[in-house]
Amino acid sequence: MISSRFSKVISWAYLIALYGFIFLPVIVLVLFSFQDGRLPVPPFNGATLKWYGEVFADNRLMAALGNSLMVAIGSSLVACVLGFCAAYGLARFVLPASRLQRGILIAPMTVSYLIIALGLLSTFNWIGISLSLWTVGIGHVVINLPLCFAIIYASMGDHQKNIERAARDLGAKEWQVMTQVTAPMLMPSILAAFFLSVTFSWDEFIIAFLLSRFDVTLPVEIWSLLRSGLNPKTNAIGSVVFLFSIALLLVLELLVFRRTAKK
Amino acid sequence: MTAPVSIRNATKTFGEFTALNDVSLEIEAGEFIVLLGPSGCGKTTLLSLLGGFLSPTRGTIAINGRDMGDVSPSKRPTTTMFQDYALFPHMTLRDNVAFGLKMRKIGKTERHAKACELLDMVGLKASALKKPHELSGGQRQRVALARALAVEPDVLLLDEPLGALDLKLRRQMQDELKAIQKRVGTTFVHVTHDQEEAMAIADRIVVMNAGKIEDVGRPEDIYMRPKTLFAASFMGEVNFIPATLKGRDNGMAEIDSMLGSISLPETILANDALPDQGPMTLAIRPEHFRGVSTGAERMTLGSAKIADGAFFGTHYRAHLAPIAAPDMVITAHMPQSANIEPGTMVELSIDLASIIALPGHPQTPADPATQG
């Protein structure tokens, strides 16, 4: 009896410790973003929304937030389209060395972002492309394409092959099969790939830092804020970033996973 | 719309394997043709050649007199109804049925009207705005039929469309298919391995085996007067009695069978493949031993002893051991009133006209029921 109660206590303690380990930093970050004082460290002096006011009044931060959104959505769209086309080609047609091609497509997932960024940096230098948000976007396509490809490719089964055959039989051309039958049929996994790409691009730092120059994304801007020391304002913008990621996850859950579960 | 189909010397090989071996077949416009055979016999390959999903290694296929050599599936006057329905899961039934019309650039109002008309024909008008996953198997089948017919094909290809349905629903869908085919008049080419289904719906049955056509004809002809041993055994239970043709004389054929010598009128031997002399087989269906006197000329193949029997409702199914060849097992259907006590002697009496004469000897004199 006693030992069972004891093990219950242990398991609860373990659970709390586990979640505490994961979420305590986030809780501290959010809590001290409301700090009424100059330093985001204990003791907590009382709540204020002043720092959020400053964040939204800061033109550079707001510009960086806009840039981040643009890069995240743009690069994710491109990664999804390219990933879908690659998956369709490899799943539906007999191609030479298709196994190798699949491997090469997924390989960048195993390469560190730093290496990818350095490689892209020297490539851009070599062909004379100057750094901008475009180059950051290209970098994010490079890291997200394998992910999009893998997710979409995994959802392409043989059952859908017959459905595509039926569409062709009814007079659809290849592009019509892709846009009107295959893509809508795979929409849940395409959306999942898209939202995951957006979250990854949204808080990616190394590539964004190395491949941008004047216009920067939010993580890079936050980093330059941090250089001038801790400040509740950095906590506030961090909370905004966190909130956005949570919102994306919720959208993904409600839009994609709920819908597939219903089917 | 409807059109004749002409298949000439079609051969299809996959590497070493010959799926279809020099097949020729003429199909009339508006005919309901059933390709019947065991799996691997080439029936689905032939259907794919008609639909354009495969192209023949040799030979030609013409629909309405036009060679289909380099015409893609989407350009052919054919549509296919797939075994797994292959409905578009993200579209409503109406959009599913209207898809082919949309691809043909028919305006929205017109194609929706046409789709509703077809859904009405298959009894699903009220569900027009539902999605396929809300339907039962039989209903999905009907939608697939409506979708395939919406573009008014000349030829509808049906790839084992009833295979996934349970028996009762399958019988019901057979009747519906037949009725709809009569109504629209389109040429139907239907693939199945179920001989009962084939007999229930076909105008003509094409029995296939090992890439070749074994027999072609009306269901009653294929069942009563099959041309080959394979066709005879595939169409239903049958007794094969190995025999030798001794010669023909005065309109009568002298035959040495395992049950003794008999002479049969030449009319029974109306099979071009039969030689003047040599090995042959007498095939008799179990129900023809039922002693129903129709006034036709009857003959006897001697006596037999009942080995065992079981009651099947409409008849007794008994195994008999002929006195002339005690090792042989003959399956016979006997009247409900018969005495099937083992050891009882019965006369193997049959209508002369129900004897089927076939060339060759059966490879394995085994139970034909295992050949389904």
TrEMBL record, chain A:
Coiled coil: none
Subcellular location: Cell membrane
Ranges of residues in domain ABC transmembrane type-1: 65-252
Residue spans crossing the bilayer: 12-34, 69-91, 103-127, 133-156, 177-202, 236-257
Pfam families with a match to the protein in the record: BPD_transp_1
GO cellular component annotations of the record: plasma membrane
The keyword Transport is assigned to this record: yes
InterPro entries assigned to the protein according to its UniProt record, in alphabetical order: Bact_Polyamine_Transport, MetI-like, MetI-like_sf
Name listed for the protein in its UniProt record: ABC transporter permease
Organism annotation: Thalassospira alkalitolerans
Taxonomic lineage of the native organism: Bacteria, Pseudomonadati, Pseudomonadota, Alphaproteobacteria, Rhodospirillales
Automatic annotation (TrEMBL), chain B:
A single GO BP: putrescine transport
SUPFAM superfamilies to which the protein is assigned, alphabetical: MOP-like, P-loop containing nucleoside triphosphate hydrolases
InterPro entries attached to this UniProt entry: AAA+_ATPase (IPR003593), ABC_SmlMolc_Importer (IPR050093), ABC_transporter-like_ATP-bd (IPR003439), ABC_transporter-like_CS (IPR017871), Mo/tungstate-bd_C_term_dom (IPR008995), P-loop_NTPase (IPR027417), Transp-assoc_OB_typ2 (IPR013611)
Entry's Gene Ontology cellular component terms: ATP-binding cassette (ABC) transporter complex
Gene Ontology terms for molecular function: ATP binding; ATP hydrolysis activity; transmembrane transporter activity
Gene3D superfamilies for the chain: 2.40.50.100, P-loop containing nucleotide triphosphate hydrolases (3.40.50.300)
Alphabetical keyword list: ATP-binding, Nucleotide-binding, Transport
Domain ABC transporter residues, every copy: 5-235
Protein name: Spermidine/putrescine ABC transporter ATP-binding protein
Source organism: Thalassospira alkalitolerans
